[in-house]
Design goal:
Helices cover 64% and strands 1% of the residues. With 278 residues, the chain is an all-alpha fold. It has two domains: 93 residues, Helicase, Ruva Protein, domain 3 (Orthogonal Bundle), CATH 1.10.8.350; 132 residues, Lysozyme. It is globular.
């Protein structure tokens, strides 16, 4: 009996300690579910202690974002015709910024063309659509966005959990507060708008300064080129017809036909304007 009482007291003490140190886990709320999925589905404990994770998932900043959910409901690539979609981006002002951007980064883009055997105007078009040349790239906390998707959008739950892991790994390696990384409602960040897994795997230190910089233009431009090549962009290919190999590589950037076609139209307009100016 004494042995039984001792065991009972030990279990009781463990429960008290558990609830004291892990109140959210005891409550079984959305934070707990996200925490639990991250532990079960990824190797996060190789990078963070349980206490570090507890602090992250108990932070009052980690709340579901209604704005993120609303943005998913009105995704332009799904809710607009192609004409409506492309008109968001193919505007005279943005094309002019693209031409200026090309002129400013011409030397880097020429080097990329040689190193990756890729049309540099495709890269300029992608950057123009993704962040309007670095002027629009930080609308939401990426951590909060991914947490919201994992908690409230079942079809994105597994994907968002994996991307939370990738984001936290990136932040740990760079010594960054996960809440400080800002990006799109879908969870992309930086001037190239890479999702965390793509950044970790496919971004490169193109200027060879020892660091992959999501807000440094040389690394961003080189990383976009590297991404496209790794996703099947053929060497020196200027065949951008529908469902060509180059078209498919471009489409992987956003998984949308509207997106790929708009990038190519943007590229063609840049090429036309550059030709007319020579």
């Amino acid at each position: 009996m004494a042995k039984f009482n001792t065991m009972k007291q030990t279990i009781k003490t463990m429960i008290i300690i558990f609830c004291f140190f892990f109140p959210l886990l005891a409550q079984g709320g959305e934070n707990y579910k996200a925490f639990n999925r991250l532990i079960k589905q990824t190797d996060i404990e190789s990078f963070y202690t349980v206490n570090e994770l507890r602090m992250l998932f108990e932070d009052p900043l980690l709340q579901e974002s209604e704005e993120v959910l609303e943005r998913f409901k009105r995704k332009p690539e799904k809710n607009k015709t192609y004409k409506e979609y492309k008109n968001i981006f193919l505007q005279e002002k943005r094309i002019k910024k693209g031409l200026d951007f090309y002129g400013e980064h011409k030397n880097t883009l020429k080097k990329i063309m040689k190193d990756f055997q890729i049309d540099p105007l495709i890269i300029v078009a992608i950057i123009g659509i993704e962040t309007n040349y670095g002027t629009r790239f930080a609308e939401h906390s990426v951590f909060v966005s991914l947490y919201t998707q994992a908690s409230k959008i079942p079809q994105r739950r597994t994907w968002a959990t994996k991307e939370m892991f990738e984001l936290l790994v990136y932040c740990k390696e760079e010594g960054i507060d996960p809440f400080s990384v800002e990006g799109s409602y879908a969870g992309a960040f930086g001037f190239g708008q890479f999702i965390p897994s793509s950044f970790n795997k496919l971004s490169i230190d193109y200027n060879q300064n020892g660091k992959k910089e999501p807000y440094g233009w040389e690394d961003v431009l080189g990383s976009v080129a590297h991404y496209l090549v790794e996703n099947g962009y053929p060497p020196n290919d200027y065949n951008f017809s529908f469902r060509s190999k180059a078209w498919h590589a471009i489409r992987t950037y956003n998984r949308s036909d509207h997106y790929a076609n708009t990038v190519i139209e943007f590229r063609n307009e840049l090429a036309k304007q550059l030709f007319l100016s020579t």
